[in-house]
Task: inverse folding
């Protein structure tokens, strides 16, 4: 039979529910132009950094289009220089009545048209440069590459529904958990007070896989299930969390300071509610009704019914009844 004393301690208020791990960011890498997939420059499962070159699309068609646009600009620039030269000559000749005003006006219009054509050429060059840049596919985020979705040498299209590979950002990593809507007020208050701690626990053995913080509370409560979603972020330095994994999320929403506590095993439930066996000075026990609050890590908060220093039976109550006398064995000697 185990005996414990009622004492005051700080007790964390913990909310636990099922969570699902997901990548912090997920990007499907697709080609934005059509062409042959000339090179794949990463390995499946490789960690890549933002800006790393992942793949190359055959650039020859797009390089030719860019060269053609530059040539057109050079052609129109030469035409503009000639048109301006003619206009300057016409302006001088119209003053001597050697050229009509109409002819001079027509030449001014010609110059303006070529100037507009040059602006169009510059826009075509910018477009061609953009198209050419799309043949070099780079990583938009830090992440881990998944399984290659299409092999080198295949023809890819901007309209393809699939992609080349999926990048998942797992450092950090996210988890979505759900809590009953009754906890809305406590979660909101905790988030307003500052960072809210959360632990990711293994569903198999309860081991702590990682520690992080709650990033946000969803902006709606699911009316079908009456639950509220939380998004938590974990550093995941040791890769113990993986997208799609199920976990138990333990959210610490508050800490009760100097709360009156008793072992959770001391709390019994009968027809009239919760009670504990309190040990009197003559070593007899009496069932005392109690009202309990949160329970965390085997410790129950006692809101009423007990006083600090009371001794209670923490285990072995099935052999007890009101007025029974107990013998508390001394603890075994240390070895």
Result:
């Amino acid at each position: 039979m185990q005996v414990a004393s009622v004492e005051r301690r700080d007790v964390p208020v913990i909310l636990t529910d099922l969570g699902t791990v997901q990548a912090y960011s997920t990007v499907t890498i697709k080609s934005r132009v059509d062409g042959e997939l000339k090179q794949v420059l990463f390995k499946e499962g490789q960690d890549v950094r933002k800006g790393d070159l992942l793949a190359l699309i055959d650039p020859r068609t797009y390089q030719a289009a860019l060269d053609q646009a530059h040539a057109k600009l050079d052609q129109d620039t030469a035409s503009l220089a000639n048109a301006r030269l003619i206009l300057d000559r016409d302006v001088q000749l119209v003053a001597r009545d050697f050229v009509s005003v109409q002819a001079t006006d027509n030449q001014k219009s010609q110059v303006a048209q070529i100037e507009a054509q040059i602006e169009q050429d510059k826009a075509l060059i910018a477009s061609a440069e953009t198209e050419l840049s799309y043949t070099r596919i780079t990583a938009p985020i830090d992440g881990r590459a998944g399984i290659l979705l299409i092999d080198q040498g295949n023809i890819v299209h901007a309209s393809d529904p699939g992609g080349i590979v999926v990048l998942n950002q797992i450092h950090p990593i996210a988890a979505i958990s759900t809590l009953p809507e009754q906890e809305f007020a406590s979660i909101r208050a905790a988030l307003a007070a500052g960072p809210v701690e959360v632990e990711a626990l293994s569903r198999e053995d309860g081991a702590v896989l990682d520690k992080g913080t709650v990033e946000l509370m969803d902006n709606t409560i699911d009316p079908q299930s009456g639950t509220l979603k939380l998004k938590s972020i974990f550093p995941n330095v040791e890769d113990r969390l993986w997208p799609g994994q199920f976990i138990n999320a333990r959210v610490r929403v508050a800490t009760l300071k100097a709360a009156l506590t008793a072992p959770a095993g001391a709390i019994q439930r009968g027809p009239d509610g919760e009670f504990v066996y309190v040990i009197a000075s003559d070593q007899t026990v009496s069932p005392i009704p109690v009202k309990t609050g949160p329970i965390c890590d085997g410790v129950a908060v006692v809101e009423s019914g007990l006083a600090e220093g009371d001794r209670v039976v923490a285990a072995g109550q099935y052999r007890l009844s009101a007025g029974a006398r107990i013998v508390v064995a001394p603890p075994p000697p240390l070895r």
About this structure: The longest helix spans residues 60-94. Helices lie at 60-94, 101-133, 184-193. The domain at 60-133 is CATH 1.10.287 (Helix Hairpins).
